[in-house]
Batch of 2 targets.
Target 1
Amino acid sequence: MRDVRLAFGRRVVYDGLSCSLARGGIHLLLGGSGTGKSTLLRMIGGLQRPDSGEVRVAGQLLTGLSERELGGIRKGIGMLFQSGALLDSMTVLENVGLPLREHTHQSPAEIRERVTNVLHAVGLEDVLALLPRELSGGMLRRVAFARAIVMQPEILLCDEPFSGLDPLNVTRIEQLLVRLNRELGLTIVVTSHHMASSLRMADQMILLRDHRCVAGTPEELASSDDERVTEFLGDDGRAYLAFLHESRAAGGKS
Ligand SMILES: Nc1ncnc2c1ncn2[C@@H]1O[C@H](COP(=O)(O)OP(=O)(O)OP(=O)(O)O)[C@@H](O)[C@H]1O
Ligand SMILES: [Mg+2]
């Protein structure tokens, strides 16, 4: 993103925002409520155009593309929305298999197998025939997550992937994200208030503040004396980051 500006009416979201997210990294978007985290994911996903400035994904300038061309780019991007957004009248199999039905020529049997596998990866069994209203909140998040990765995207955008999950499933999704990143080179952008788990896996942190951002590795932000950073992180956040820094230095990335 370069010099991005966006306002909704009088509400300015970004005013000269620039940042770059390396391919193959896990990037953590932080910032208070309403600072534009979800909107930034939507912009990377080609669902929201900036008023001015450049947004490039994999070298492609999104701002110049037609809706149709954007549709092509979106196929390589998995999105997990903050609201989950499953279709109420469809079963879990139909919801998770939807991108495969729309964008591939796979047979129903192949789709069923792929869907079963991704559901297994998020810790769900025997839910294919259930409707969204028959699932708990945590199960819904995991089904939405399964749908976001079912197409094996190159980029995965996750809006609050840990919200509403119990600790066991936070760990499960965290491990799955790290595995997708390490094994398949998936580029991941996560927004999260769940600091501990997101920080553990982040290569880069992007802190949204005052309509712009400050970015760096967790180690860099921990030792930053930029007021916008220290204020947001607070003493606890900095102490935790310093601890992470030490344990990484001692034994590599945990
Ligand atoms: N489609 C829209 N129309 C009008 N205003 C919008 C729209 N989308 C976002 N906004 C506004 O833009 C700002 C950023 O919203 P966004 O949802 O990106 O924040 P966020 O950082 O994700 O917040 P949260 O932590 O609460 O999820 C907010 O002030 C919001 O009201
Ligand atoms: Mg949000």
Target 2
Amino acid sequence: MSIVAKLGLKWPIFQAPMAGVSTPAMAAAVSNAGGLGALGLGAAGVDGAREMLRAAKALTDRPINANVFCHAPARRDAAKEAMWLEQLAPLFAEFGAEAPAELSEIYRSFLQDQPMFDMLIEERPGVVSLHFGLPEKSWISALQDAGNLVFATATSRLEALACVDAGVDAIVAQGIEAGGHRGMFDPEAVDAELSTLDLVQILKAEIEVPVVAAGGLMTGKDIALALRVGAEAAQLGTAFIDTNESAADPAYRAGLRDPKLLPSVLTRAISGRPARCLGNRFVAEARQIGEENAPDYPVAYDAGKSLHAAAKSKGNSGFGAQWAGSGADQTREGGAAEILLQLGLELFTSQSQ
Ligand SMILES: Cc1cc2nc3c(=O)[nH]c(=O)nc-3n(C[C@H](O)[C@H](O)[C@H](O)COP(=O)(O)O)c2cc1C
């Protein structure tokens, strides 16, 4: 049985988990409309995560995809962190602020988060998805035994094979077009930067586990193409950033259609891991400073978030983590359910042609 059938979905369309952007209202609206809604819990902490899941569950009895970050813990390097802060200091000064004296690992990896694991077992969202790596196999099978499907992101063939070995129910094949963080297990690894459609085809050639296409898919026609090359479903993030239920602020929403900020580009300056972002001022400044100097994820993100807060307090929105895929300029406004329905109908039309 396909994962779409197992989940009882009307459309093979998943709203991507988006930490900081997806909300319980968005996830519930998408799930109620026959897609799979998702919550990005990676930055929430166990109490916040439970609260978000319960808020979504109060709005739907359909499955919700609860997403966590499985990054290898940061390698701390005091000298590197101090130098990064020194390099960012003039930017803080521009907004009348001082760079923080030191940085911290602002959130815990799921790999070390037993309370989050216990919470997911108890709350049983229906789907648990893993980004940046894999926990031990016993956790994956326990989540499955508790009644969840488990998905994991892969950006390459090797990562996908590790997901197969770990026993996941589906692999989210994330192409280079995708908005937000690349799910690479090792951010230092050589990245072949495969496109979504290429990656899906490479995985389908040797992997039986269902594949979900993610990256740069903005219309039902795009989804139809991904299904045609072997994906069982498509996961869309950027397409939902400007929905009524999104937590994105007005400047971020406007930036999706601002030619000065497009196309979106990959940077590791904001968080310490490669992520696709609008080409905002932070990205430009980081190019000058040398983004390779940024500390490990999520330590660099501590600096990035402080700088964004300082800039925003003075009305400058150019330092935000404005994640966006390569199709940002095709983003639509409206309710999340309405966008899902439009995508579904376009998919249906494309498939009937
Ligand atoms: C704003 C934003 C936040 C994201 N946050 C997460 C996240 O918390 N967890 C995750 O697995 N993927 C995250 N992603 C990546 C998505 O899962 C997905 O790979 C991507 O959105 C697909 O590309 P698209 O944005 O072009 O549709 C995020 C993407 C965006 C745009």
